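Worked example 2:
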Amino acid sequence: MENAFYVEFPTLETEDLHVNNFGHSVTKPCHKYGPAVRNFYLIHYILDGEGEYFSNNNCYKLRKGQGFLIEPDYQTVYTSDAVNPWTYVWVGFSGKKAKDIINNIGICQDFPIFTCTDGQHPEKYIEDMLQHNNASHDEQYRQMAMLYLFFSCLAKANKEHTGERTKDNVYVMHAIRYIQNHYSEPLQIEELARYIGLNRSYLSTLFKKHTGLSPSKYRIQEQSKSEDNRRKLNPPHRDRSRC
């Protein structure tokens, strides 16, 4: 169970950037959300307590001052701690520029976690949105302004904790994203290299340097992980009750 206050708006995919929802939640011990898949981006920021976030066959143990990204079309689960359950705020958004914004911040479903310092307070922008929550034009403009300030805070936090990602890392991140989005299709290295904008040989060398695998072997490994994770999240006759 949770005590939540949130606001939702209809999805408008034709816009460059659109606020789908935002909210504040105080959860009970063991509160679980998911497995779930969304059609928009969603970012949670933890104000207090602890919990776990499950995605891509990984489990992230998170605490106050940290946050996590959920991208569209990924199945995820998150659960509050049994002793110290978390309180968090969240914002959901979509639009034609949403993916580029997330990339520029430096987070993605492969690197979904960020940490803020004591002097950073991204929650204040979502709290402002909650205070100015109607659909009038003036308040919608204010909500968009708060969303961009929220992004700015996350970009700064990610830069301070991980440093600016090198261009090589960005190439590999885009290659990984391409592979994940084309699991059902045979992997053509030439097509992947053309998509990334690199020479095939250089891309293969770069990819192996950062992952330890060739693109083809990485695809096989991640596809196997994805299938295992799907079976774990959807076991036969699963008990859907919450603890």
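The chain has two domains: 2-162, 167-229. Residues 167-229 form a domain with the Arc Repressor Mutant, subunit A fold (CATH 1.10.10.60).
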